[in-house]
Write a structure and sequence with these properties.
The chain is an alpha/beta fold. About 25% of the residues lie in helices and about 25% in strands.
Amino acid sequence: MKVVGFSFIRNAVKFQYPIVEAVKSILPICDEVIVAVGKSDDNTRELVAAIDPKVKIIDTVWNENTREGGRVLAEETDKALQAIPADADWCVYIQGDEVMHEDGHAEAVEAMKKWKDHKEVDGLLFNYVHFFGSYEYIGAEGHWYPHEIRIVRNDKSIWSYKDAQGFRKGENKKLQVKSLKAVIHHYGWVQTPRTMQAKFLVKDKIYHNNPKDEDNFVVREELPYLLVKALHKFKGKHPKVMHDRIKSVNWKFEFDVSKNKYTFKDRFKTILGKIIGRRPFEYRNYKII
């Protein structure tokens, strides 16, 4: 069985993306990893090239004219996905702000072996933990996506969907997947306040045809943190590859979890979810089989 990882990144240093940790987190289960490195304003390419000999880089230039709902992120994902050699059986996807927990490696490998010859299985579904503000807080249920596909079969009819959150197949068909207990940690909202604000501006350019004027953009470092309604204290353990980065944190973020804001709709979904054993009305960009 051959397994190839893939990812994409641009300006990882400038925006403090843990791309090194992201790639390292999937290396143990991959024979090689292909990273589409966009033309950057920093030394992102050198950073990625130094990770491991198993990492292969394809140089890209982001299409700045693609601003419909973050579609450029999917385009970059597809560049890496399409570069995966034909002899690979499975493709392991990781974004530049995600890290696969090593506790799930064995399960992922066993699942890939088990379902390799079952062509009806298009991919494998992972659980998500979303961090916000610091490595000590995670997003409350109902406000973040709880699962997503991060391993897909090496099928060239599979493509990155919308803003690269998930995948589709052929004529916009949802992938059929098997669910894992393995976990992905999403650290995209854990950055210094000023970097977080700069990220907001870049995201605005990626997602909208009429982005804000950068020259007149007022920097309010507290703004991103005013948007969150509910967080919980993280009680688990971080992936080993993240330990050094976490130790180097030079800012402090505090959130009073006793003041979490839940709507009646949120509370109703929580109660119903406990009764039926799953989150009700959850959007699923896949079909669990």
